[in-house]
Specification:
alpha/beta, 6-stranded parallel β-sheet, 6 helices
Length: about 160
């Protein structure tokens, strides 16, 4: 079974930094978004499509399993970082995936310095970590009712105590 380093377009932070520099030298506009993306849903797909529409290259940074667990609790992730990376890369708008181990994207944004940072609309501009490392920040509203938490709650509600 392939490890993450064997999957094309899943780069280390160091590799992604060099790739961003090369792409920007070619005049490409690099767009960045990040998150846990533990269970993909329509809200994520919408965010990726909107983010890609803002530039030429879309980088999706995902929290490592350890950092996701720290953020969301010991029962998460539901989907491993390797599987999340593969799933996200299978989506048409996504050009690259990079995994980061911190709880915020500040360090990776400082390293990569993409042109545009895209976040969900639940963040106020002043709360968006790493905004000082990009030229523009865009916030897109959530699609009502579409969230990983809602999916988890729905599954628990429908299937708790019953075999599938």
């Amino acid at each position: 079974m392939k490890s993450l380093k064997d999957i094309k377009r899943v780069l280390t932070i160091k590799e992604m930094k060099q790739e961003v520099l090369n792409l920007q030298k070619e005049g490409k506009k690099v767009v960045f978004t990040n998150g846990c993306f533990d269970l993909l849903h329509l809200g994520h797909i919408s965010l990726f499509n909107k983010a890609k529409s803002l530039g030429d290259i879309l980088i999706v940074a995902i929290n490592s399993d350890k950092s996701l667990s720290c953020l969301k609790g010991p029962k998460r992730p539901l989907v491993s970082q390797k599987d999340r990376a593969k799933l996200i890369l299978s989506l048409k708008p996504v050009d690259y995936v990079v995994v980061f181990g911190e709880q915020t994207p500040s360090k990776i944004l400082k390293e990569l310095r993409p042109d545009i940072l895209v976040k969900g609309g639940d963040y106020k501009l002043s709360e968006i970590v790493g905004r000082e490392y990009v030229h523009k920040v865009y916030r897109f509203p959530f699609i009502k009712g579409k969230s990983t938490t809602n999916l988890i709650n729905l599954i628990v509600d429908r299937y708790s105590g019953r075999a599938v």
